[in-house]
From TrEMBL:
Broad EC category: transferase
Record-given protein name: Tagatose-6-phosphate kinase
SUPFAM superfamilies in alphabetical order: Ribokinase-like (SSF53613)
PANTHER family assigned: 1-PHOSPHOFRUCTOKINASE, 1-PHOSPHOFRUCTOKINASE-RELATED
Residue ranges that the Swiss-Prot or TrEMBL entry lists as coiled coil: none
CDD domains for this protein: FruK_PfkB_like
Pathway annotation: Carbohydrate metabolism; D-tagatose 6-phosphate degradation; D-glyceraldehyde 3-phosphate and glycerone phosphate from D-tagatose 6-phosphate: step 1/2
Alphabetic keyword roster: ATP-binding, Kinase, Lactose metabolism, Nucleotide-binding, Transferase
Species the sequence originates in: Lacticaseibacillus pabuli
Pfam families found in the cross-reference section: PfkB
Similarity annotation: Belongs to the carbohydrate kinase pfkB family. Belongs to the carbohydrate kinase PfkB family. LacC subfamily.
EC number(s) stated in the UniProt entry for this protein: 2.7.1.144
Length: 308
């Protein structure tokens, strides 16, 4: 069974507006309320790809109730712990006249210590062969070092662990041999105290170093520049051109599509190609992809092997 874990879920309010001017009423053309959080997004994408999964996490209040309701309505079982407070609401605004995107992301509520204890007990009930995908930031009260404890539990239980979080503590989790980690280029550079704009060759070298430290596979997202996969071999692919509407969820879509491909035995190059196309399609939509345009985008996504 695949399980996603979201430790700072959110409701995202997406707004599309002709203009954004200070000091005046800006009338919008449309909006969308979305159950969100990186792990939540991964659950929705996996479900759309026909991959059964359960959404785990910590949250609270009427906003968490809405998130779990939307997941369950999509056929995704949920098992969230009430950590107190009210799960956050974020605002993403696309301005039509300028093409600019504004992202207002809140920190989330303070999580009660007993909720973290309950979470770890729940993770100790996972079974050998299960998969756990830890995605996104942690709410206040959840220390970044928790990622190391989660990795240790996963290793003890024989659970395949996938990590997509920006914390430097990911490096301390690598000796537990996570199946896959997915930093973006800026996150990966920050782990090594390097500037965010390092090139592909350096990213590949860092990916190989992460393998030496214990990670089995590394998927490095690069925004408009596509992605690099470092596994048995190294592959690089472009992001197909789309009219960008909302980039929130693009990386989550890429990860979930790649995980689904791994579950179905796709080769790494083909898997990267489809994952990049799906991520770009999400960036062109108010929310996540419905996969209707995937064939066209796949045709414009090209993957090459870098270590021949």
């Amino acid at each position: 069974m695949i399980n996603t874990l979201t430790l700072n879920p959110a409701i995202d309010l997406f707004i599309n507006t002709p203009q954004m001017e200070a000091g005046r009423v800006n009338r919008t053309t449309d909006s969308d309320v979305q159950a969100n959080g990186k792990g939540v997004n991964v659950s929705f994408i996996l479900q759309r790809l026909g991959i059964a999964n359960t959404a785990l996490g910590i949250g609270g209040g009427f906003t968490l109730a809405y998130i779990t309701q939307q997941l369950q309505a999509a056929g995704i079982p949920t098992d969230f712990i009430d950590g107190g407070g009210i799960t956050r609401i974020n605002v993403f605004t696309h301005v039509q006249t300028s093409g600019q995107e504004y992202k207002l992301v809140n920190p989330g509520p303070e999580v009660a210590p007993e909720a973290v204890v309950q979470l770890l007990e729940k993770l100790r009930q996972l079974n050998k062969g299960d998969q756990l995908i830890v995605s996104g930031s942690f709410a206040r009260g959840v220390a970044p070092q928790l990622v190391v404890i989660i990795a240790q539990i996963a290793a003890e239980r024989g659970v395949d662990l996938i990590l997509d979080t920006s914390y430097h503590d990911v490096l301390d989790a690598l000796p537990y041999h996570p199946l896959l980690i997915k930093p973006n280029n800026a996150e990966l550079a920050s782990w090594y105290d390097l500037p965010a704009d390092i090139g592909a060759n350096r990213l590949v070298a860092l990916g190989r170093d992460l393998q030496q430290r214990g990670a089995q596979n590394i998927l490095i997202s690069r925004g408009n520049d596509g992605a690099i996969f470092v596994g048995k071999h190294v592959y690089s692919g472009n992001a197909p051109d789309v009219a960008v509407l909302n980039t929130a969820g693009a990386g989550d879509t890429m990860l979930a599509t790649f995980v689904a491909g791994m579950a179905r035995g796709k080769d790494d190059a083909t898997n990267l190609q489809y994952a990049l196309a799906a991520g770009s399609d999400t960036a062109s939509k108010p929310w996540i992809t419905d996969f209707n345009n995937l064939d066209r985008l796949v045709a414009n996504t090209h993957v090459i092997q870098l270590d021949q």
